[in-house]
Hints:
The structure is a homodimer.
Chain A: H1 12-20, H2 24-35, H3 47-64, H4 81-89, H5 95-115, H6 118-129, E1 135-138, E2 154-158, E3 163-167, E4 175-178, E5 187-196, E6 199-209, E7 221-225, E8 238-242, E9 245-248, E10 258-259, E11 265-266, H7 272-282, H8 284-311, E12 313-316, E13 323-325, H9 330-363, H10 366-397, H11 409-416, H12 426-438, H13 449-456, H14 472-480, H15 492-519, H16 524-530, H17 532-556, H18 561-581, H19 583-588, H20 594-611, H21 615-620, H22 637-652
Parallel strand pairs in A: 1-5, 2-5
Antiparallel strand pairs in A: 2-3, 3-9, 4-8, 5-6, 7-8, 10-11, 12-13
Helix pairs in contact in A: 3-5, 4-8, 4-9, 5-6, 5-8, 8-9, 8-10, 9-10, 9-17, 9-18, 9-20, 10-11, 10-12, 10-17, 12-17, 14-15, 15-17, 17-18, 18-20
Amino acid sequence: MDIPKTPARFDATELATLLDGRWAGVRAKVREALEGTELPPGDHLDTEAHRAQTLEQLHLLVKSGIPEIGFPVAQGGRGDVGGSVVSLEMLAGNLSLMVKSGVQWGLFGGAVQALGTERHHERYLPSIMNLDLPGCFAMTETGHGSDVQHLRTTATYDPATEEFVVHTPHESARKEYIGNAARDGRMAVVFAQLITGGERHGVHALLVPLRDEQGAPMPGVHLSDCGRKAGLNGVDNGRITFDQVRVPRESLLNRYGDVAADGTYSSPIESTGKRFFTMLGTLIRGRISVAGTAGSTAKLALEIALRYATARRQFDRPGTSEETVVLDYLAHQRKLLPALAKSYALHFAQEQLVQTLHDVSVSGDERAQRELESRAAGLKAVTTWHATHTIQTAREACGGAGYLAENQLPQLKADTDVFTTFEGDNTVLLQLVAKGLLTDYKDQFDELGTVGMARFVADQFVGTVIERTAAKSLVQRLIDAARDDEDAVFDRGWQLKLFDERERHVLDGLARRLRRAAGKDADPFAVFNNAQDHVLRAARVHIDRVVLEAFVAGVERCSDPATAQLLERVCDLYVLSTIEEDRGWFLEHERITPRRAKAVTEAVNGLCQGLRPHAVELVEAFGLPRQWLTAPIATGAEHARQDAQRAHDRTLG
Amino acid sequence: MDIPKTPARFDATELATLLDGRWAGVRAKVREALEGTELPPGDHLDTEAHRAQTLEQLHLLVKSGIPEIGFPVAQGGRGDVGGSVVSLEMLAGNLSLMVKSGVQWGLFGGAVQALGTERHHERYLPSIMNLDLPGCFAMTETGHGSDVQHLRTTATYDPATEEFVVHTPHESARKEYIGNAARDGRMAVVFAQLITGGERHGVHALLVPLRDEQGAPMPGVHLSDCGRKAGLNGVDNGRITFDQVRVPRESLLNRYGDVAADGTYSSPIESTGKRFFTMLGTLIRGRISVAGTAGSTAKLALEIALRYATARRQFDRPGTSEETVVLDYLAHQRKLLPALAKSYALHFAQEQLVQTLHDVSVSGDERAQRELESRAAGLKAVTTWHATHTIQTAREACGGAGYLAENQLPQLKADTDVFTTFEGDNTVLLQLVAKGLLTDYKDQFDELGTVGMARFVADQFVGTVIERTAAKSLVQRLIDAARDDEDAVFDRGWQLKLFDERERHVLDGLARRLRRAAGKDADPFAVFNNAQDHVLRAARVHIDRVVLEAFVAGVERCSDPATAQLLERVCDLYVLSTIEEDRGWFLEHERITPRRAKAVTEAVNGLCQGLRPHAVELVEAFGLPRQWLTAPIATGAEHARQDAQRAHDRTLG
């Protein structure tokens, strides 16, 4: 098999510029701001010292001007929604700082901005931005993390005093894992079932003071500490219980639902469900930030592991007097290089997602918003799992050195572990993506009626249509020209077509399967549940296709031929290692022949060997702030040691 | 498809007895000893306090009589090698304690026992057993972790003073990650290149004092601290550098090589390489203990996740007024139940491995010893990866609760993460297994000559032949009666045959591939390296077969019909989920049809649903000491909360 050529040299600046993308300015600003600022992650500190340090670091960020990027110009911000997401993902080397920033400015500030109205913006946003008012985003409850539509905290309107009474009816309803709650938060956006005049209107958000200026809890507010966690111990997660806490009527963040002084409820959106999911949709930025940050942590872990792997040697190399550099082993390449290729793919997909977020935040286009929500859910799941898997692999690839705190991987692993859970459990998110895709098959479920339909398909997205991403015409052109000969595994059209057909086949099959089972008048839970593996697969293959199209579009934007050629090989490795991983499905459904499957494996091996010389340059090009790379094994210690050993061995020699 | 029946009831005592196996007595002794002893894992402590606590706990273990199990009767031990491994794996709830015990009694004490002679036994073993002499096992160096045959520390004999001079020539040669070195160790078994009369005789072990009675370092010994690690912070890992340290001639552990007063070297084994691997072989107990402990931690993680999953509810169940118990979701079952089935399979394989270790330690049979080394290497790799994967999955399955330290999973994850690295890097171990298997194909490499041969096949095992495990005749009988009809996926003979044929096919193919490539007069490194993925696969499928045969033999020992029936289903789930995972290979090599592959997936779903009601009983039957289960989510808190919520919801009507 002829593996397509990898260029010997390419333009690293060209590549870095391409990866920096639309928000290159924000990336440069953060790099510059961090350079002069000491922001150590603090994993060696005890909990209280770590929390104190993280709060201090937030104040340093305020001075840098980074937090204001995403806030409205009217309140002194920059009004750059996309930029705010990109700036957070640049904090990958100190995840307590990133998460606490995300809580303060993304979740708390973001909710006031998205769900509140002018009176809230004017009164609170300035002091949220400058950290005078540290706050919480109190949605999750002990009993309801994924199913937030059914959380149990109540906010009952009392027209006599024109107040809401916020209350926690039982232990399952207390607010749980709330960042900023254990130590620093003075106010919270509290999500609660709104009741007025004896009628329930679904979940709404209110501003509730938690602590006074001296840090003492407000009357009726009970705060406790979630205690030590696997990681992120610089973030003070806590629990909040409300005992008939009264707040003024104006505390309601009333953009999507309001209560008049006499208790009359009004909303621009009639359906309780649609209203709730519209509100949730405006908070999508947090989920996108987590995906972006997860992507960055995988890059950082790969940079550490790849730098070490190009210096570390082990076992004599037969026929030479030297030991073998570990990245020369195929097994080591296979651990790290497909993960690097996937990091590239996800980088371009994330860039596209942030662009959509930014553009939708300006245009307000409802259909684009639905698609954004689906993409955000899917990419968050795929990217956070990628981070978990990649950091684990990097740790193992660094052996015992990877287990030492000084080499950063332990902290990265521990801090990111919850990324697959918070801002939406990954399995639940994939299910949402699949349900959204099934709305395309609405007609097939007609016989089930509206209620039956809702059980199977989107109960929160209006539905996301399977259609081409931004790269529409390019992708279609490549597919139309797809080859199917011996070397087709490297043909982009063939690859795109394979992903495309897999998605359609899985979705068609799922729709048929559900309809068939439902037709039997079976228990609706059982029908959907028995196909749950199929449902999750539908979401995964959909995201695979979206990610690949983003990668293809990204390569297309590259104007330097050698750099583009290099990226084509990285893209090949992403595609072919993805196919290899799922070749069970492709073979089972006779989409590839056994012979072709073996060729894919051979191609992955060849691409790994071809890209190996460029591994470190490829990972450097992501341009993570240099401050975050502190691991001695990745910053020269191993090189120095190998040199000393070889010098000594020669004296014996 | 008809999924074979799972019994409604079975005899839990029968199952527990079967799992306790040959060392039921040791297991009972440890359970009893732990019941009255407080041994909290201490993950909330700072490093110094954690180390101090762990040392204290080791002294408590001494009182329990557990450490003496594996030591010779002559020195007051019980002489029960197998029992000593089993006792360590019972410490899964406090891994700093387990690892520090393993260092002191398994590695340090074990090396003195295995490599020393009577003079060392009499002088040192009693004070090693009672912890008067805390010690280290100083093998790994900064520059050589996997390739320990080439470590660089030297021990040069000086006949003038009848002393060895132990020396660290450069930084790469310092001893690294050595347990007990940073704080408590007073003596070390040091592995070094032995030089006498200017001649090198390969790696040998010597006893070198590290600290005096007051804890001060001995002259020429430089000790430093590896610092904070991802986990196991109760173990004081450190670095040791020797600056021309002199020890008496009698310090050499001289069972396999000795130096006379005049400097003459002698050994019962002529070849330097064979001598070294024979010495390593006697230390196999440590590797087997790690496999056993890894298996236990996976069981503990599964017990936490399964108990929580049977109490936790999320999302309304359509058609009822209740929320769905999360273990009722197929996706949740698929996360946890195949892992539970694999834990069963590995449990039986580990039991068999410990038996072989024990019996070989009595018989001294060399061929059995080689097979033991291969099995130990393979099972250590497979079981530690299983633990890493399962604990990760359990953490995610418990959502945010799984991220809280109080729920144990963070500590389990952090502590076990290095298991895939220490006592042999998993990738390196699998390669050793494969090389051992290739010695069966010796003839095919004849043209390469002895040197060429050595590059491809066992350079350390004499070779392990592919042959049936203990269950020989039973397995052969089942294979002979293998069916191949519609429902064959549940036929044990068909399953065994599939695993068997896969192993032979992969190995045959590998041997052919290597010979073909080698024939071209190519770079021997490149030949082997280009096939490295194939090499690792050969080892994996070999271990899969060994594990399955152990499981089948285990079920055969069960006399209660209902319990046996239940185990048959667990075994089906292990086999079929393994096939499903590797169905790419089976399809690619036309060992199963696409139709059969789909049937396998359907069978896995059906088995998950069938076993779901017994999940908690199945994991309880492993009989881990109850002291280790402290997670509130697994010990009633979630049940209580759900009850309170439902009671409250009912009052709302």
